[in-house]
Amino acid sequence: MMLDTSGHPSNREQDENRARNDSPSKQACPVNSHNEWDPLEEVIVGRLEGATIPSNHPTVTSNIPGLAAKKVHALVAGMRFPKIMSEPAQRELDGFIKILESFGIKVRRPDAIDWKRRFGTPNWRARGFINACPRDSMLVIGDEIIETPMAWPTRYFETHSYRALLKEYFRAGARWTSAPKPELRKELFDDAYRIPKEGDPIGYVLTEWEPVFDAADFMRCGRDLFVQKSNVTNAMGIEWLRRHLSDRGYRIHEIESRCRMPMHIDTTFVPLAPGKVLVNPEYLDISRLPPILKDWAILVAPEPNPIEDRLLKITSMCGKWLSMNVLTIDEKRVVVERHHTSMIKALEKWGFEPVPCDFLHYGAFGGAFHCATLDIRRRGSLESYF
């Protein structure tokens, strides 16, 4: 049973229990999303309640700037996020939800969870983290929702906070798949891994011992998906998804990232509309993009506006290129952080309509607009854009 933070059944779980024996919906499946730009109609937005600083683990400390300094993180891991961080982030999240609803978008939320509780397997124990970023733990491909095999032990049961929604979508006709749950034993992690220095070859904290991946390392363009290897996504994970989708005619293309701490493609390579992709000039060699993109407009992201606030700089879990972490409402309108005026001007120059929104404090909890959401329904059909 899903419990709220007081230990009682959540409202959504109670509603679900009352509807358990109802006949399946006769309406069209509510899950339908094939790309990053079709008109958005329904979306899951994450929560901050119950958030806990993630457990001290190599996959965490090798990925996060700022607070990720090992000595500091070891002292605070497992504690609640302080109100000085959570309260402004919550105000920004509430404002973002109001913007989405003002466009007529249906906003769904996971259940609130106490992430401070310990859990584990025969191989390890950890505390939880947060359900602020549904983009990481679930991948929507058409009418299918795939729970991903995440590499952070602290996020092992994160999708349980979405289970009431997942069951609702399943009853309404959606396909619901879970990739193989990883063991996360020590063999998956490279003990000798160190963050590469400037100019060193890119390495990863993960081995190829078992398949793991975060959904946020993938971008969808109809029948073509783009992915990067990272410190949470290995080659076995990419191959698992390739085989899973291949009989339906999907193709997966790998993007070579030069980021020294790669984690999630949505600050590196962001399709905005058919034939238009936003790219990070620091992380990508544009001449080495997949040949399939030769006819697309490559929009080079401007240098992000610097963050001067000291607290934001030391607590963010994300790098400076979070300016690229935008959410497309449709082929024209794009939600973008208000602080990043250089990105706003660039989007206007490229023919888009930026929708400014305050969201800088959300970076302490793992991301920005793309991270904080999961597209459930976009009005459109499966197409090939290449």
TrEMBL record:
Q: Which GO terms describe its biological process?
A: creatine biosynthetic process
Biased composition, class Basic and acidic residues, residue ranges = 10-23
Q: Which family, according to UniProt?
A: Belongs to the amidinotransferase family.
Q: Which taxonomic lineage does the organism of this UniProt entry have?
A: Bacteria, Pseudomonadati, Pseudomonadota, Alphaproteobacteria, Hyphomicrobiales
Positions with biased composition (Polar residues): 24-34
Q: Which GO terms describe its molecular function?
A: glycine amidinotransferase activity
Q: Where is this region: Disordered?
A: 1-34
This protein's record includes keyword Transferase:
yes
- Keyword Lyase, does the record have it? no
The name under which this protein is listed is Amidinotransferase
Species assigned in the record:
Nitrobacter winogradskyi
Question: Which residues carry out catalysis?
Answer: D214, H264, C371
Query: Which residues, if any, are the signal sequence?
Result: none
